[in-house]
């Protein structure tokens, strides 16, 4: 096993000056301890619970959505390991960002929240419902009702006029992505539909998921090979969809569809279930061919780790893209639970990735990924010295530390324990009938005035909005949820 030799060499190199993480993959307590160290390092970036700061926000240059994703990892961390260290901070963050409107549309973030940004916070609420994460007091927003609110709003944004269906990337008229239908926005809607269908037993949600899948296929965003392309622009006057996604694929696009397809497999029977099984297998094939190293089966972000060049330099993942493979791990793990026939295939991938990822958590306090484009410099690592994780796993510690690197490594390590019965996770995601406690509200979110008929029915834009919008468009053009932006500039 070539990897073990390399990993052993690495450990030797960094162990002298550093603590490093010594993890025995076959010892549950050792894996749990490694996860705890990495989670601690991740939360060392979080300042939202300090006096004067806003619960749920990460410091610049991290976008709002990434904080939402981080708390999703922490919900699962509690579910799998039983470690309650971050339960309070997580609950406070989700409830605060759910905002007064109870739909993850806080006014402070209206400029940066497109369907995908809102969708990532909503996934966190969905995980909280499925994991039976402690429910907030009754007068506070409830996990399931939050998901239903956002789902209903997304459904009302479905746009049949352009490209024959799908959600646009943008929610508001002043955002980038008004003329872009992207796979992550639609994939999140699909994913939430499939999971709501299983959690509530209401098949209307699944009907929306099926419709979204069919539409993605119809414009070839999901290809015959089950690659999931980033998105398609359309002509705003003719409404015709372009075939302009380019060759790049991102791990979170295929991952978000994989988990949704696995949930659809779980809730269907007969012929329909066979169809979803074929899709799950197909997506796993795409993942295996693009997002796993050939011989060692370690997850990688294909476009940033395969030597592609951009303007003469190796293409580097921006801050958003640095987090994608962590979500792929999350969705792979969940897939192996709700579509158990995939377990034998997926589990070895998570295991080899966990070993590789933990082996490069050797960086010092202060380690920080270099700036990519104009994304800003990430704060230096403040966890335990010698345990800062790197981004690339198939090579020695690369210095690319940050929230993304911690979240990815945490995911790799903790999801090896999903089936082990340490916490509640071994039973699989809860449903309303089986283990779930979260209260729903099927009618939530339907009166949102900003969501009827896509962008057309939006409130008129004021001068103040326009002034603000210029700045935000500039920021958006740099980096909001990942792959999409890279392709639009
Ligand atoms: C904020 O949360 C972190 C991580 O849970 C914790 O270590 C820290 O003590 C908290 N700070 C405050 C002010 O509550
Ligand atoms: C919005 O910003 C204000 C001012 O910083 C802050 O007090 C409030 O908590 C923020 N609200 C949300 C939902 O983030
Ligand atoms: C089922 O879900 C749909 C949303 O797609 C909702 O309109 C309907 O009220 C739900 N039915 C029940 C019984 O909750
Ligand atoms: C879309 O473009 C790709 C090249 O980027 C091409 O290979 C493919 O055949 C095109 N598909 C359609 C349906 O035009
Ligand atoms: C696996 O090997 C093939 C053939 O050498 C190569 O084209 C492909 O990029 C490799 N895959 C990965 C994920 O490195
Ligand atoms: C659905 O998921 C549960 C685990 O959460 C699993 O026990 C069950 O076997 C799955 N159903 C099917 C048809 O695979």
Automatic annotation (TrEMBL):
Q: Where in the cell is it found?
A: Endomembrane system
The protein's name is Mannan endo-1,6-alpha-mannosidase
EC number(s) given by UniProt: 3.2.1.101
Cleavable signal peptide: 1-20
Q: State the UniProt keywords alphabetically.
A: Glycoprotein, Glycosidase, Hydrolase, Membrane, Signal, Transmembrane, Transmembrane helix
Question: Which EC class, in a word?
Answer: hydrolase
The GO terms this record gives for MF are: mannan endo-1,6-alpha-mannosidase activity
| GO (cellular component) term, any one | endomembrane system
Q: Which PANTHER family match?
A: MANNAN ENDO-1,6-ALPHA-MANNOSIDASE, MANNAN ENDO-1,6-ALPHA-MANNOSIDASE DCW1
TM spans (from-to): 467-487
According to the UniProt entry, the coiled-coil residues are none
Q: Mind telling me which InterPro entries this protein's record contains? A: 6-hairpin_glycosidase_sf, Glyco_hydro_76, Mannan-1_6-alpha_mannosidase
Q: Which GO terms describe its biological process?
A: carbohydrate catabolic process; fungal-type cell wall biogenesis
Q: Which family does it belong to?
A: Belongs to the glycosyl hydrolase 76 family.
Listed SUPFAM superfamilies? Six-hairpin glycosidases (SSF48208)
């Amino acid at each position: 096993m070539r990897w073990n030799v390399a990993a052993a060499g690495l450990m030797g190199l960094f162990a002298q000056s550093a603590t490093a993480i010594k993890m025995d993959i076959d010892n549950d307590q050792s894996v749990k301890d490694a996860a705890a160290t990495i989670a601690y390092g991740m939360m060392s970036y979080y300042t939202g619970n300090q006096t004067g700061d806003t619960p749920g926000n990460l410091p610049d240059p991290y976008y709002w959505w990434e904080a939402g994703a981080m708390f999703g990892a922490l919900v699962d961390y509690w579910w799998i390991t039983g470690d309650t260290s971050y339960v309070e901070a997580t609950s406070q963050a989700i409830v605060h960002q759910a905002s007064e409107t109870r739909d993850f549309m806080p006014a402070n973030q209206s400029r940066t929240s497109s369907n995908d940004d809102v969708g990532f916070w909503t996934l966190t609420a969905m995980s909280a419902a499925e994991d039976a994460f402690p429910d907030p007091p009754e007068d506070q927003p409830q996990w399931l009702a939050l998901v239903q609110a956002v789902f209903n709003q997304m459904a009302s944004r479905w746009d049949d006029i352009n490209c024959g269906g799908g959600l646009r990337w943008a929610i508001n008229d002043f955002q980038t992505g008004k003329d872009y239908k992207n796979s992550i926005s639609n994939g999140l809607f699909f994913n939430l539909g499939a999971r709501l269908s299983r959690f509530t037993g209401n098949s209307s949600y699944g009907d929306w998921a099926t419709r979204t899948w069919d539409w993605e296929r119809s414009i070839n965003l999901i290809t015959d090979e089950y690659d999931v392309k980033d998105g398609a622009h359309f002509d705003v006057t003719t409404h015709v969809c372009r075939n302009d996604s380019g060759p790049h694929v991102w791990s979170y696009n295929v991952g978000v569809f994989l988990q949704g397809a696995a949930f659809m497999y779980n809730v269907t029977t007969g012929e329909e279930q066979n169809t979803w099984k074929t899709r799950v297998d197909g997506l796993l094939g795409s993942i295996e061919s693009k997002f796993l190293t050939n011989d060692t089966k370690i997850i990688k972000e294909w476009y940033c780790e395969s030597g592609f060049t951009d303007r003469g330099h190796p293409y580097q993942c921006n801050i958003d893209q640095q987090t994608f493979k962590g979500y792929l791990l999350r969705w792979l793990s969940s897939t192996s639970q709700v579509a158990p026939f995939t377990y034998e295939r997926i589990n070895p991938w998570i295991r080899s990735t966990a070993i590789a990822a933990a082996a490069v958590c050797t960086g010092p306090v202060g380690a920080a990924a270099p700036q990519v484009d104009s994304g800003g410099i990430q704060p230096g690592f403040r966890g335990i010295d010698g345990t800062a994780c790197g981004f690339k796993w198939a090579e020695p510690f690369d210095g690319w530390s940050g929230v993304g690197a911690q979240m990815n490594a945490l995911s790799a390590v903790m999801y090896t324990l999903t089936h082990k019965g340490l916490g509640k996770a071994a039973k699989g995601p809860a449903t309303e009938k089986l283990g779930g406690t979260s209260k729903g509200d099927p009618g939530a979110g339907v009166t949102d005035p900003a969501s009827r008929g896509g962008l057309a029915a939006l409130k008129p834009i004021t001068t103040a909005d326009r002034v603000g919008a210029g700045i935000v468009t500039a920021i958006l053009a740099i980096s909001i949820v990942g792959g999409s932006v890279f392709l639009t500039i």
